[in-house]
Amino acid sequence: MMQKRIVLGSKSPRRQELLAGIGIEFTIRTKDTDESYPEDLNPLDVPIYIAKNKANALIEGLDVNEIIICADTVVIVDKTILGKPNNDKEAIEMLQLLSGKTHLVTTGVVIGSSTKMTSFATTTEVTFKDLSKEEIEYYVSNYSPFDKAGGYGIQEWIGFIGVTSIKGSYFNVVGLPIHEVYQQLNDFELQNTD
Fold this sequence. Notes:
Elements: E1 5-8, H1 13-21, E2 26-28, H2 46-59, E3 66-77, E4 80-82, H3 88-98, E5 102-112, E6 117-128, H4 133-143, H5 157-162, E7 163-167, H6 170-174, H7 178-193
Parallel strand pairs: 1-2, 1-3
Antiparallel strand pairs: 3-4, 3-5, 5-6, 6-7
């Protein structure tokens, strides 16, 4: 379907699974990049800022027949960004913050080639029931959610028992708003062939 070769700039197994799920063949290429951001940046703009940094680190190495996809996901609760927890204590604290509340999950996506770049963000509202201390501790000790923004994976046990409602894209919460990526990739290719 795609005329260009797709490069996914992510080590995330969930993003890889979602991209493979729409039948796109791709290679993986990553580079360690700074994921810090200006303190005064609107929390909703942070994932695009970080995704652009990831893309900029890889774009100069792209072949003319390659398109890169980079993404970053953040969890926002009470206007505070929750990143990836470093240990059990941080994961437990994050889930305690999310318990009984609605939070936002925003993914920024950058699609680029050696000649152009486009970006977009998708936000989903997720509501958790009141989680007990035992439920939180069970999840953290059995699922080790240290590679996940906000300290949880909606596709895991905590999502099954804890999420009471979702408004927007489920796959965005998993890590990539794949329906929009599909559309944007098609648009990007059409623009590149003009």
